[in-house]
Fold this protein.
Amino acid sequence: MESRQMPERRKSRLPGVVLLALALVAALWAISYFRAEARIGRATARLMRLVEKHADESPVALGLAANRLGKNLATNAVLELAEYGVVATGRTEIVQIYVQVRDLLAGLEFIQPRVGVAVVRRGEVRAVVEARYRLVVAGTEPLEGSSRTELTWVKQADGWQVGRALVSGVAGQPLPGGWK
């Protein structure tokens, strides 16, 4: 009779063990999906898609893109080109440069981008993007090259925002005709 009870005990434990294993897997997934590094990686990928330009756009579309970019920037954000130094300080100035440059471009595409993310300290995460780019200005040959961008994301009252963007790899690249 005891041999009959043993399998019943095993059967009654099996659903509990399976539920415990599922709960553990779900908890591990949630931790990896919602941790700061994962959220910043996804936000950086969205920002890259926002910066890309594949076709002509209306002034309204340009304004909406600029507004979306501005929401991702801290009020005191800094844009820096490694070879030239600080180009713009503050959200407003960076968005204005973004609008001017984007309006001049016929296209901008990132080819095979790689995003790496690491926590610098509490409330600060650095995302490094390495990619080849293809830049098209109307009436000129497309420019292609490689660049590296470091985005320092800081935790603000409004959520994670870019506090500093350091773009490198543009030195030695010829500027399109008429650009200085």
In short: DSSP finds four helices and six strands in the chain.
